[in-house]
From TrEMBL:
InterPro entries for this protein: Galactose-bd-like_sf (IPR008979), NADH-UbQ_OxRdtase-assoc_prot30 (IPR013857), NDUFAF1 (IPR039131)
A Pfam family the protein falls into: CIA30
Origin species: Croceivirga thetidis
Protein family per UniProt: Belongs to the CIA30 family.
Domain of life: Bacteria
NADH:ubiquinone oxidoreductase intermediate-associated protein domain span: 7-157
Protein name (record): CIA30 family protein
Length: 164
């Protein structure tokens, strides 16, 4: 198995290429933030608001296009807050839709694994009539919280790998 490190808090972490996109792009009032912790972890935190038809906050990470096999697995070391989140990937950063799956966090450090072929296409919260992820590259990934309730959130990421 060949593992490609996408982000590693123990190996020269950088905040470059991480950016927050909230529902304010559609008039909402959610407020997400991103920072590196003193330990080098990626920390996505803030508040989701339902005001003004809002309801989501996301963080995106643009990565150099990385080759993947159809059997590739995303392996992510993270610590959530007990909330449900969405993992999102794109074959290229410029692709308009995302391939997603949901996961629950426990409040403790977890190592989660996701088969890329199991992620399904969505655009603006709607499932698309396209096949599940079947591309040869990943060019962006991210996390979204949007559970249809107002809530505080914090998701801390220590490591992201692609295992082919």
């Amino acid at each position: 198995m060949n593992a490609q490190i996408v982000f590693d808090s123990q190996n020269n972490p950088k905040a470059d290429n991480w950016y927050v996109v909230d529902d304010v792009v559609m008039g909402g009032r959610s407020n997400g933030h991103f920072e590196l912790t003193p330990e080098g972890h990626a920390k996505f935190f803030g508040e989701v608001s339902l005001e003004n038809n809002g309801g989501f906050s996301s963080v995106r990470y643009a990565i150099p296009e990385t080759k993947v096999s159809l059997e590739a697995t995303l392996k992510i070391r993270l610590k959530g807050d007990g909330n449900r989140y969405q993992l999102r990937i794109k074959d290229q950063e410029s692709t308009y839709h995302n391939y997603i799956t949901y996961f629950e966090t426990s409040g403790d450090w977890q190592t989660l694994q996701f088969k890329v072929k199991d992620l399904y296409p969505t655009f603006r919260g709607r499932r698309l009539n396209l096949p599940n992820f079947n591309h040869q590259t990943i060019g962006a990934l991210g996390f979204l919280i949007g559970n249809k309730i107002p809530q505080q959130f914090q998701l801390t990421i220590a490591k992201i790998e692609i295992v082919n």
